[in-house]
Amino acid sequence: MNPRRGRIRRGGEEGQMVPLLAIFAVVLLGCTAIATDLSVSTHYHRNLQNITDGAALAGAKQLPINVTSLKQVTATKTALEVIHNSFPWATVPGWSAALSVAGCNAAALRCSVTVCAGLTSPPCAGTNVSAGNNPPFSLTVNTPPQTATVATFNNSDLSVDPHFYQRVEVVMHQQSGGFFSGIFGVSSEVAGAQSVAYHFAADQPFPFALFSNTVIGDGNSPEIIQGNVYADRYLAPQSDGQAAICAGPDPNGNPGYIVLGAPQGGDSGYANDGQYNDNKVPPGGDPIQDNFNPCSSIGAGQVGMSANPVNTTGCANAFGGALSGSTMTFNSLSHACEATPALQDPQVAAEPNIPSYSTTQCMSNPKSGVPIDPTQGAFKCNGKNAPSLLISGSITMNTGIYEILPSGNAPCDVVIDGTFTQLTGVTFYLEQGAGICANPASSVYVHQTPYCGTCSNPNGATPGDGVYDILSDNSGLNPSITMNTAGGGSSSGVWQMYGVIWLPTGTINIGNKNALEDTGQILVNTWNDTSGNHLNPSVKFNGSYVPPQVEVLRLVE
Questions:
Q1: What is the pLDDT of the chain when averaged over all its residues?
Q2: Predicted pLDDT of residue 366
Q3: Please, are residues 306 and 297 in contact by the beta-carbon 8 Å criterion?
Q4: Distances (CA, A) of 326 to 110, 265, 333, 505
Q5: Which of 171, 172, 173, 127 is nearest to 153 (CA)?
Q6: 171 contacts 194 by C-beta, under 8 angstroms
């Protein structure tokens, strides 16, 4: 090879890197520019999302328990004002027109208002105003939602979504104004932000007549609960005789649901308990009978509910998932509504503000409760190797909260023998796992109404407001109500209450020829009824007694 020819060839290649480097530099500069604009776009998107979140929450906050067209207008205006505070557009013309919420239809209970600021394309579907110093944007407020990603949020069928009217949707798009992306032919339009907020207004009752964190047992005659029933594991009517459980309509006519915790599996061993055996083919071994109405016709060994969730009402009406934090679905094996995860009872019962005591007062006179602080209406009851409180004969029961401590006579730290029958204005506060035994004789009724102090805040969330008949502390022990020693006669002895029994870690045991009747609500860990074929325990939901749940305001999309 000629050495000189090789040198000439290499010399001809010199200088080719310069244009290559120039091309790479342009590409690198373009990528950097686009990345810069994308960063700007991301900033715009995050900013928009924060603003639409705030606007949706502010709007939803205005929606009450029962939504009216006027409240929808207020919610929509509030959401618009939040956006306007962040992106002030020209006030004349446009803002006043948008604020008038002309897009609201009172008859249809819907508001939909769109504002475009500075947009020339595409044409604005609503009020078009000047964007001022802001990049062009479009804004839509829908009360309730119309274009939510979660399809059920747009469904006005309340059997699908009972909380449809408690939501506000805010959708916003804004041009980022990216400089470099425009040079390279990349659109500067931000995808935008979308927010849906939900409001569960205060003072709404927890919607279960009978709520058990474990199981619900039934005696030897039909047990009818007027309202919703929840058992985390199963319902267990006695396997023989006339045992039956039915969730009937509440006093307002709303159908009663049976809800189980999920997952459910296996068979509890009781006939028709609503559970199923994993080895059986659907509809399973013991399906609950839905659409069972009237409950008075329920037969032996059956578990039924008056609601028809599979065909008509849907399970969400029992307790909406948006509120409970659970997904409520119909299980074709058990024929029950099931909550995933399992429901939790509301922690609404605060401990009473009972003063400390230097001496034990309740037992100083077994026949008369002695007031510790007349303004509090509080009594300290702590016996030793005897009931802390014996309610018998001609005892005088002052109105108030009776604080019950273990006496060494468990489970009967309080004994109600049925010879004194009027517990008017009395609330029992069970501490450290204390218990009450009530043993009225056949056909004897013991009546109890809760203590109501000054009643300045009826239906509140603290003892002394006329809501709680019996409640427990937060010790996590097992407070109890026991009715099992009456016997004799042809009918039950009855403890009849008007109010709430709140024993989320406790047990209610009801034996043969005993019955506990409550108008209000019962929340308990275990409901164990073996009352026999006589007058059976019953629960009737009454929202005027039930303490309110905590208000919920949150983003759901």
A1: 76
A2: 36
A3: no
A4: 27, 18, 19, 21
A5: 171
A6: yes
Tell me the two tokens of residue 391. 């309610």
Kindly report the backbone phi and psi dihedral angles of residue 515, in degrees, each rounded to the nearest multiple of 5, phi listed first. -150, 140
Mind listing the pLDDT tens digit for each residue in 21-63? 656 655 565 555 555 555 556 666 788 899 999 999 999 999 9
| Per-residue pLDDT reduced to its tens digit, 189-221 | 555 899 999 998 877 788 999 999 888 877 767
Dihedral, CA of residue 515, residue 520, residue 525 and residue 529, to nearest 10 = 20
Sign, Cα dihedral of 36, 42, 46, 51:
positive
* 498/494 Cα distance (integer angstroms): 13
Identify the bridge partners of residue 430 per DSSP, sorted by sequence position: 404, 472
First to last CA, the chain: 76
If we measure between CA atoms, which residue out of 197, 173, 174 comes closest to residue 54?
197
Residue 459: pLDDT above 50? no
Structure tokens, 218:
């039934």
Question: DSSP code of 167?
Answer: E
Looking at residue 35, what is its pLDDT? Answer: 53
Comparing CA positions, the residue from 297, 324, 320, 293 lying closest to residue 307 is 293
Radius of gyration of the chain (CA): 33
Is 422:398 a contact under the CB 8 Å cutoff? Answer: no
* Alpha carbon 420 to its chain's center: 39
Query: How many Cα atoms occupy the beta-carbon half-sphere of 480 within 13 Å?
Result: 19
